[in-house]
Amino acid sequence: MYDRTIRRRRLTLAALLACSLLLLTVYFGESSGGALHNVQRGVFSVFAPIQEGASTVLKPARDLVGWVGDTIDAKGRLNELESSNQRLRARAIAGSEALRINSQLEGLLNLDNAGGLAAAKPVTARVIGQSPTVWYSTVTINQGSNSGIRTGNPVINGDGLIGQVSTVTGNAAIVTLISDGELAVPARISAGGAEGIVQAGAGGPDDLRLKFIARRFRVDPGAAVVTAGTLSNSPGLESLYPPGIPIGAVTRVVDPGTDAQKIYVRSYADLQKLEILQVLTTAINGNRG
């Protein structure tokens, strides 16, 4: 039974193939006005309107499918672009961070070399906190006594003096800035040598005063103010600050040439934007000049 079914299918297939070959031979052998060509045209004329109608009816569906596909594709490309932008942004931020840190480290290195501060065994530290006031009178750094830092050590950045260590723990320290009114720094005019004390005024972190300058000394705006270092030869009277560390520049002088003259100084360091600092852990020759 099964064999007869297979044979019938094979005979049917062979007959269809033979018929197809016969029709193709006749079709290509007859003229354009032949019977088979006329049948083809008749079939086309019947089904062409149906095909056109079906195409018109199905066009919105095709457009919808195409729109969905395009939307999915566009969303995929958008996600790829966003990911690429995030990677590029992260690289740009990392690059700018590295440049900024490198610039600060370079400034510290230049100051160490120019002022001979490498002998003070500087410890580099990063600011990890600051006082929550408009005066920014203290900052916290991520190095402490485990790195050799002690209370009273002077602290600098690439622009100059910023303060001294006031509290120390094993792995951190608090630095009191020169904008704190309780901190007084022995200082002098770099060019003329007039000596006095730099101390914060009442006007904020940018309001430093150079006090106790004798009236015989002429001080002009723009004059550089630096640390004076140790002035006395007596033991126990050494200054905490090595001489010659930049502090700031004179901005104006009120009542010059009198005992009541007021000398205003702006710090070279931006005390509100401190990041990389150095703590000078060892006095150099008693901090004498």
CATH topology of the largest domain: Thrombin, subunit H
Low-confidence stretches: none
Question: For the CA atoms, what is the radius of gyration?
Answer: 44 Å
What's the CATH architecture name of the largest domain? Beta Barrel
H-E string: HHEEEEEEEEEEEE
- Output the structural class: alpha+beta
Q: What's the number of extended β-strand segments? A: 12
Q: State the CATH class of the largest domain.
A: Mainly Beta
CATH level-four homologous superfamily name of the largest domain: Rod shape-determining protein MreC, domain 1
Mean pLDDT: 78
Percent range of helical residues: 25-40%
Shape: rod-shaped
Figure out the total of helices.
2
